[in-house]
## 1
Amino acid sequence: MQMPEPDRGVISRKREIIAALQEILPQESVIYDEDELRAYENDGLTAYRQIPLIVVLPETTDQVSQVLQYCDKNSIKVVPRGAGTSLSGGALPLEDGIVLGLGKFNKILETDFENRCVVTQPGVTNLGITNAVEHAGFYYAPDPSSQIACSIGGNVAENSGGVHCLKYGLTTNNLLGLKVVLIDGSIIEIGGKHLDSEGYDLLGLMTGSEGLLGVVTEVTVRILQKPASARALLLGFETSEAAGDCVAAVIAGGIIPGGMEMMDRPAIHAAEDFVKAGYPLDVDALLIVELDGPPVEVDHLIERVNEIAKTHGAVYNRVSESDEERARFWAGRKAAFPAVGRLSPDYYCMDGTIPRNKLPHVLTRMREMSEHYGLGVVNVFHAGDGNLHPLIMYDANKPGDLEKAEDFGGDILKLCVEVGGVLTGEHGVGVEKRDLMGSMFSEVDLNQQQRVKCAFDPHSLLNPGKVFPQLHRCAELGRMHIHQGQLPFPDIPRF
Amino acid sequence: MSEILRPENPDQLVELVNWAVSEKQPLKVTGSDSKDGLGRPVQAQHTLSLSAFNGIRLYEPEELVLSAGAGTPLSVIRAALQEKGQEMAFEPPDLSVFYGQGNGEGTLGGLLACNLAGPRRIKIGAARDHFLGFSAVTGRGELVKSGGRVVKNVTGYDLSKLLAGSYGTLGIMTEVTLKVLPVAEKLRTVLVYGLEDAQAVSTLSKTLGSPHELSAAAHLPAAAAAGFALPRVSDAGRAVTAVRVEGPEPSAVFRCEALRKELSALGETEELHGKNSQDFWSKVANLQPFIQASDQIVWKVSTAPTAGPGVAARILAQRKGQHYYDWGGGLLWIGFDPAGIDDDGGAAIVREALGEAGGHATLMRAPDALRAAVPVFQPQEAGKAALSSRLKNAFDPSGVLNPGRIYADN
């Protein structure tokens, strides 16, 4: 993975930069000791590592503003970092850049039950928000698997999803407001406790912008009352085609479950070996369907889903009779990644989304690719919304294996795009999928996205090397090619 | 009257925008002109109609996705969805009567460009939340695409959000893709009579914070209720507070009963079923209280729900008007009678009253001259305004797309 050429001038000024940052921040908030820096050399995409020039840990918006203003004036690159759980290398440091860690922004500022929202600092974990409001029966709906560790600021940067986003939406659908510091140090407030924006939807644009547009220092999220009850169904099928048909039939039947997950045979076996969730081992595909709401609704829908499953060839079905049993159904799914980790020294987690009805085709092609590359693949799948997580098994100590796994992964994602889907459903582009962007977007599309970047960060100092395969200068992107002297559209109908 | 240009395909549209740029001829971008009265009047010699970008390109009910030309009439979209028991879940209002337009309720592109949403906004989001992807021609004369046809997608910036609510000032959408959802099997509305604004909104807040999963929550003071032309509402002679539950029949019935029991402690209650229930929320969405007095100046105020009654009281203390609340109190509609030539339409009063509470006020209906004279959309603080104009510049550096529609200088 090629990163932007480091600026030797900046690296040689390290001492001076440290001194300047120490003017802005307390001594202990500026980290430059090699051993301490090592803790920041990678995020959740562990195949890539880079020791940053310096790490700063500000704790007020004003400090963030001063740091960014200094970096902007002195052409120093900045990589924002939340909890460092990104699976796409969104927080991968740069040799000539500082990492701006938001770990000290760890306080919840306000819980407002009447307006059903929480105002929080970005370093609070996703689960921390739910923990702060659950005594009153509320929760924060988006639930990425890393929710114990990942920060809400990182969730905003990546537009994180989770198992329940089919019914309750992604991060972007659950945000009300942000405080953002731009690279020039200016502070803007977007949204608040009200709905919709008074001008362009900067809230929507910031969400999922992967730290390229600004640094979020305050977040207002919507909270929901917990459903009165929930039950889950385990459904086994002889083929993944049959399971896919069942998913389509449930949705066509007007039912939007709280969660609907699919696992293929290798995933079922790996999870069952690991956590003994009680999964059937003689099926090719397993669905977990969760229904939530008042008990009368849940019971009614469980029955309907069960009927649909029967007519679509389910050979196994079990309904959770208690919350413990429901938790056990999920335990296997939630442990699928570590379970695969026991089968293989390393695994590489992919994240494409496809139109659901393309699943059988994609699975067949994936099996062929698996043979071609000689690497095993295990599939877990957010079946309700078409988000695939193939786990490619490889051995990093075997020369060439990582490259093979990456090529295999790239082929899977290109296949996702080919069938009408996208490169990433919830993990982000980061560095990982950066060079595949051209398979989904034309150069014209990508240039337009970069012009948006230019409106926020004209010198491309915020998280450069992520998302875009090629960096263009803003001046060059701004140029217009005007077609002077053409005849005024002779062929266009008018009336 | 300006000339109407009607490109028939993206190539012609690109050619047209290139011409507009090189000849410095701004374009007024329209679907069917149904919401011409929303936003600042656009000063442009040429009107561009997207009516040729018409038709559903893809509709897969079991995938919950629909793609159509941006100029497709909403009536066509609604009919296709209805046939499969689905809908645009954000409950888009039909403002054609409110704006006194005789040409239908508008196009899909127009709806997205205005980012409208009805009462279900509080549960399911606005148009922006259901807008998955688009193709559009920017003011640079380039056809760009963004997003896709799947819900879970974080590939690149979410430009769909940016185009939703951009009023045609960033790009001319040619094709758009939406997430659609099944229509709930049953809906029930519970009414409580005679609550004061503050008590009503506090009740709505409490009820929205219960596990009953409301899909709408509104409060009509007595005067607004009187204009609703619905049994049990217009004849109530009192304020009407309403909450809606939707879902499978047993669930809707159960929650309706539970709510009615809880709310009966506050006053007399009633239920609306079936068509009455549907009509009630359509009228809330379509601004029924301001239909009759079609010359009333109308404001939309979005604020924190609990701040709604305070903002309304501050406004009404200074200028007589009619009002009601949607979105659990967070959406305040206020109508004033016009008051002569120097009238700012209540702009100063409304925006000052909003002040500390936070949020934004939009002048939804007023004569052209007034909408040209006072800021229709909430003025932004300097930093955000500068960023907005840099974004406009990133898409439309020559300012040929709907100049002045949102802000006078943009």
## 2
Amino acid sequence: MSEAHATAADTGTPESTRVRHGKLVSQVITLAHGGGGKAMRDLIDDVFISAFDNPALNTLEDQARFQLSDLARLGDRLALTTDSYVIDPVFFPGGDIGKLSICGTVNDLAVGGATPLYLTCGMIIEEGMPVETLRKIVASMASTARQAGVQIVTGDTKVVERGSCDKIFINTAGVGVIKQDYQLGAHLAQPGDVILVNGFLGDHGAAILNARGDMNLSSPVESDCAPLQGLIQAVLTAAPGTRFIRDATRGGIASVLNEIAQSSKVAIEIEESRTPLRKEVKGFCEILGLDPLYLANEGKIVVVVPEAEQDAALSAMRAHEFGEEATSIGQVLTGGVAGRVHMQTGFGGKRIVDMLVGEQLPRIC
Amino acid sequence: MKYVDEFRDPEKAKILINEIEALAETLHSRWQRPIRIMEVCGGHTHSIFRYGIENLLPESIELIHGPGCPVCVLPMGRVDDCVQIAERPEVIFTTFGDAMRVPGSKKSLLEAKANGADVRMVYSPMDALSLARKNPDREVVFFGLGFETTMPSTALTILQAEAEGITNFSLFCNHITIIPTVKAVLDSPDMQLDGFLGPGHVSMVIGNDPYAFIATHYHKPVVVAGFEPLDILQSLWMVLKQLESDEAKIENQYSRIVPEGGNDVALQAIGKVFRLREFFEWRGLGSIDHSGVQLTDAYLAYDAETKFNVKSIAVADPKSCQCGEVLKGVIKPWDCKVFGKACTPETPMGALMVSSEGACAAYYQYGDLKKLNVRLEVEEEVAVA
Amino acid sequence: MCLGIPGKIVHIVDHELQLGMVDVGGIQREVNLSCVAEDDQKLESYLDEWVLVHVGFAMSVIDEDEAQATLGVLNELGEMQEELTAMREGAS
């Protein structure tokens, strides 16, 4: 079954004449809800369409259609990205898989300088999921999409047998348009540039690891999951010479910094004392022997700007709700070993910050 | 954080560095060779790299990163045993996180988990016991490893299981003891060490007396050290002061945590539950007499080796590995033939590349910037080849 | 080896099992206190004490005086260095 949401009831009829009154009666998702019949149509109508409600989706065609001229007014290049979201637990402090699946894709578009516009939504649901749970996830997607100014315009739903997936997997692809002036790339960092971040690091990683409960810790840390297109546009407007922006998701800021150093063939130095960390994330890392530089973020970006634009970029970030704690953490060095990142430790020493090997595991011994 | 931040103060570090530089200069001009100090404990190795301490020290001081990482020294045969137990359908195999990646001869616990074994990460052996309570129809096995620091927690958990009459809980015991290992290092003919940083957290359990022989028999200074960067610098300074005045005694820098006599409750629990093994195999160092413990006969019901009839088959370390020589300070990590080539953190061959506390992995990942070029050369060689 | 971290005992969870809640920088964890609790002392007397926690067990009560003494040595050392520098500068 590869139909879009639209195809379950796709009769080619225009929206105005199609009667949409599907009401989902069952309490749990069963294989029938992915079977292409009435149950599936009801699911799509009652859960997805009603929540995502927008003109492109409501036509219920096999594909969403856009006027090229509308897009061209916004810039000269299209940005296209996709990401799949699998997370345990599905609901966590500070968010849920639905919010995550919108923020992640919106941010992946925005960091390239694109204005995010349209998202797709592909879902793989494990049979047995309560319909209420699905509604909550979908409602979270819808409200985050509104917050991010994007529309979910087409989608696909599959239901798989129990055990074939972990509750729910979501894929969202996104399209955005990049303005003429923006030229961002990991290879563009130059000696003297400064490295900025928009706030506390490691919150998402610490929140998720804790929410899994294996370590039996009680922690107030919430995921920082947030759509950053507004913040990023503010930075690009204030600091048009910005070289590069990347969201520091899996692998943490350490991975992003290494990518910049390698692509731009430069050495980067960061300062531990300027790295913003919540006291609780520090405590969490101390207990489990983790390095916060490698913890995932879902609402944090690394921004490389020419030194002359540092203040403008920081003011723009700090004026935004997702950038109040924005700060500069280091710089691109003149000289040094190309491709290397090192950290001036708070203690006065220096150490290399390398890419993470495998998953970071709690270090107890 | 209290008792943490004040021991990471860079201003106080400068004071210590001044003192260390002066003493190192005196000793270096007296001896005309580097001063070689071993930190026995992997926790110290980790701190030294994490805070970039080697870069603060004068070049005349060489730190030799010792054998005190229980994850690193786990021999392949024992990991194979773990996997064998973990793959039994009735078993929930519980382990500390850092032991999951240690390679066995066929696979690691992480790979066994990927293949369907029920392997779970725990923070404490007590959490493993809770799992046994909650899953009475399953066999919960705890992978006990670590030095004397960790032994009491395992021992107390066994005693708790006994008190509650929990029978579906057992221990795969790989606890090791530090003293015979330090002795083995000291007895090795190519040993070239001037002094030791003693393992602070082991000492809070066993006290300071057990190290006395290092001072009396081998005439090497030992300073029992804490794990914050200032603790390490202060301890190095104390070792250098002893060397400068030609003394060899046991000093305790970590007195806020380490009582001279250790911890009675912990020692009693260890004494009740464990007895010494005749010998235990160490990755990189081979077999060392009396260096491991096992459950006493009274607690054999909690012994996973007995319960699951594990037939430990020793697996030899790869021949090309030179971990033993690195551990003893005979060669530096990058002098090893396979360092950075066949042996990397992704595909570790030797003990010291396995965990971030291992000297080789620490050099490879955190690097000492002065020595970074060596690694880059190695990488270039690999790229050319 | 042996990751240990200082934390403060904030409340007693279970007297029989000798469990207490320990706070490390705002993160809390249930910790076994039997290695630090003296037989004749009520567990409550350990409230607000700082302990060194290793794999869920409090292994040592942190001695504040000793901690201050350790830092005191460094302060004295610093003062001595300053005096020396001042003397050298005065002499030159």
